[in-house]
Structures are given as C-alpha cells and as structure tokens.
Amino acid sequence: MARDERRPTWAIFLLLGVVLTVTLQLASGLLLALGWIWLLPFHIIDGLVAALFLAGEWSWLLGSGAGRRSAARIFLLSATTRRRVVRQWRHLGRDGTLLREGLDAAVAGVFLLLASVTVILGILLWRGAGDLLPWHRTLAAFLLLLWILHLAFSIIDHWPRRHRNGISP
C-alpha cells in the first residue's frame, strides 16, 4: 500500500473515536436494556460524541481521495472487492485472502451505515421522538451482531496460520 493510500494520522484518530464511542454505545445500550437506567446520561453524551466522530468519518470518506477509495472498498463499489467478497463467501473465507479485503470490508461498510442511522435515531429519541425507540433498539441489535462478526473476522485475519513447505499464504 502506497503512502498516499493510507489514512492520515488525524483520520486514524477519527476512526478510533468512531470505534470507541460506538462500542461504548453498544455496551451502555445493552446495560440500559437490562435496567441500568442510571447510565442514560452517559449513553446520551456518548451518542452525541459518536455523532461528531461519525460526521468526521463521513467527511473524510467523501472529501478526500484516499477516503473515497476506502469508501469504494467498504461499500463494494470496487469490482475487486466485490469479486473477493463473492470468492470468500463461496469458500467460507478459506481462499487464502485476508477477510479485511473482502467480507470484512463489506461488514465494515454496513456497520458504518447502520451505526450512523442508529445514532441519528438516538438523537431524535433524545429530542423527544419516543416512538422511535423500537427502531433504535432493533438497529442497535443488528449493529451488535455486526460488531461481533467484525471482531471474529479480525481475529481470523490475525490468527497465526500454518505454512505449507515454508511458504506463507
């Protein structure tokens, strides 16, 4: 990967902010659903911070060349990524390519879209649209499943692999 293809340092911090705030949203939302109502102020504040990080991430994805290339990869606008996703899906990820370049890229794209919509619904809830709570909870449940899937794909990608005849895959 060439240097101009990499995320700039500030965009890495944006992504880290998205990951941390959305993860905290999932954890605090789950605890809220279990009755820990005293977490509501934290959940609201973290949701607003998550909205800022998500807005920054979308700005980077849409506003820079490297961001647009990254968006093309995670939203399957790239023919190469689409082919990798299909190949990995057929072989259940055992085709030797990194999942982050195929299936996990697609999961990351859906995750970003779903996280953005869920945070927007959360802000609308905070502003008084209480009838959106079932939608917010449903999207958050799907988001949690995607989060777990993304974590599993990352673990698989970084798990030590056996080498055949001394040649790495």
UniProtKB/TrEMBL annotation:
<protein>
    <recommendedName>
        <fullName>Cytochrome b561 bacterial/Ni-hydrogenase domain-containing protein</fullName>
    </recommendedName>
</protein>
<keyword id="KW-0812">Transmembrane</keyword>
<feature type="transmembrane region" description="Helical">
    <location>
        <begin position="44"/>
        <end position="63"/>
    </location>
</feature>
<keyword id="KW-0472">Membrane</keyword>
<keyword id="KW-1133">Transmembrane helix</keyword>
<feature type="transmembrane region" description="Helical">
    <location>
        <begin position="12"/>
        <end position="38"/>
    </location>
</feature>
<feature type="transmembrane region" description="Helical">
    <location>
        <begin position="138"/>
        <end position="156"/>
    </location>
</feature>
<feature type="transmembrane region" description="Helical">
    <location>
        <begin position="103"/>
        <end position="126"/>
    </location>
</feature>
